[in-house]
């Protein structure tokens, strides 16, 4: 949520709704009047390949009521139900102060969602990825390490969060170069 | 990749905004969410609590 404040986000986009807890976290911390959070998840598991324990988690998310629906602000959530590989960013470009990438962790999905995140994020926004360093998804960590050779990416230590601030970076006094 | 400490992020948030939610990575474990203030104090919540 600190990233949400640093980026002064008015709206957020989330790849991977899952239980909707993060969706609600974003929702309760954004201040606006409409379409605060756009969140994308699968409508079904048919034909989808998963990495690690994602199949079980995806199945759970289909069965349960999503947390954000408990919020008085639930109408300010736009739920997209589709395979993110088919998501078209047209009309959403540079629209979101925060884009959170935490959908399907297979590499092809990660690449696609990340490419889309770079188009979705506002010029002064923030892209955040979950599961960096998670031993369940080594390809994700490799992907983000590789991405960090082209963009300034930050890893919040003791967490699995990485983030990118388009067009700007944090003061040099903050952080240290990590061994990838 | 640049490694930063969580409190270094919170230090960038204005004092008036210093009560921050911070989600920590858990998968089916506990807690789901950790709230850390700018002084570094933290409190853990399950995802259905604390909203």
**So how many helices of chain A?**
5
Q: What is the domain total for the residues of chain A?
A: 1
Overall helicity of chain A = 25-40%
Number of helices of chain B: 1
Distance between the terminal alpha carbons of chain B, to the nearest Å? 33 Å
Shape of chain A: globular
Number of strand segments of chain B? 4
* Overall radius of gyration of chain A: 16 Å
Number of strands of chain A: 8
Averaging pLDDT over every residue of chain A, what do you get? Answer: 89
Bulk shape of chain B: flat
Give helix % range of chain B.
under 10%
Q: What ranges of chain A have pLDDT less than 50 throughout 5 or more consecutive residues?
A: none
SS-derived structural category of chain B: mainly beta
Oligomer: heterodimer
Secondary structure elements and their pairing?
The complex is a heterodimer of chains A (180) and B (51).
Chain A: H1 2-6, E1 12-15, H2 21-29, E2 37-41, H3 54-63, E3 77-81, E4 96-101, H4 107-120, E5 121-129, H5 138-147, E6 153-156, E7 162-164, E8 176-177
Parallel strand pairs in A: 1-2, 1-4, 2-3, 4-5
Antiparallel strand pairs in A: 5-7, 6-7
Chain B: E1 2-4, H1 6-10, E2 19-23, E3 33-37, E4 42-45
Antiparallel strand pairs in B: 2-3, 3-4
Attribute tags:
heterodimer; A: 180 residues; alpha/beta; Rossmann fold; seven-stranded mixed sheet; 21% strand; B: 51 residues; mainly beta; three-stranded antiparallel sheet; 1 helix; 10% helix; flat; disordered C terminus
Outline the structure in words.
The complex is a heterodimer of chains A (180) and B (51). Chain A is α/β, with parallel strands linked by helices and 180 residues long. Chain A has a single domain, classed as Rossmann fold (3-Layer(aba) Sandwich), CATH 3.40.50. Chain A is built from 5 helices and 8 strands, in the order αβαβαββαβαβββ. A 7-stranded mixed sheet of chain A has the order 3-2-1-4-5-7-6, sandwiched between helices. In chain A, α2 links the parallel β1 and β2. The two termini of chain A are 26 Å apart. The model of chain A has no long low-confidence stretch (mean pLDDT 89). By secondary structure, chain B is mainly beta. Chain B has one domain. Helix content of chain B is 10%, strand content 33%. Chain B is flat, with a radius of gyration of 12 Å. Chains A and B meet through α1, α2, β6 and β8 of A and β1, α1 and β2 of B.
């Amino acid at each position: 949520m600190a990233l949400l404040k640093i980026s002064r986000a008015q709206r957020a986009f989330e790849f991977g709704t899952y239980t909707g807890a993060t969706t609600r976290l974003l929702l309760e911390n954004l201040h606006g009047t409409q379409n605060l959070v756009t969140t994308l998840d699968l409508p079904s598991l048919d034909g989808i390949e998963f990495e690690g324990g994602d199949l079980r988690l995806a199945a759970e998310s289909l069965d349960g009521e999503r947390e954000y629906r408990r919020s008085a602000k639930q109408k300010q959530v736009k739920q997209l139900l589709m395979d993110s590989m088919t998501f078209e960013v047209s009309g959403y470009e540079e629209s979101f102060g925060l884009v959170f990438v935490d959908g399907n962790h297979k590499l092809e999905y990660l690449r696609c969602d990340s490419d889309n995140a770079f188009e979705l994020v506002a010029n002064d926004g923030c892209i955040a990825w979950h599961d960096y360093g998670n031993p369940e998804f080594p390809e994700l960590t490799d992907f983000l390490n590789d991405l960090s050779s082209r963009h300034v990416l930050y890893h919040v230590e003791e967490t699995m969060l990485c983030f990118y601030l388009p067009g700007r970076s944090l003061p040099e006094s903050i952080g240290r170069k990590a061994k990838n | 990749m640049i490694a930063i400490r969580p409190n270094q992020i919170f230090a960038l948030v204005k004092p008036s905004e210093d009560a921050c939610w911070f989600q920590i990575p858990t998968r089916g474990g506990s807690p789901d969410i950790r709230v850390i203030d700018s002084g570094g104090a933290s409190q853990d919540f399950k995802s259905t609590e604390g909203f």
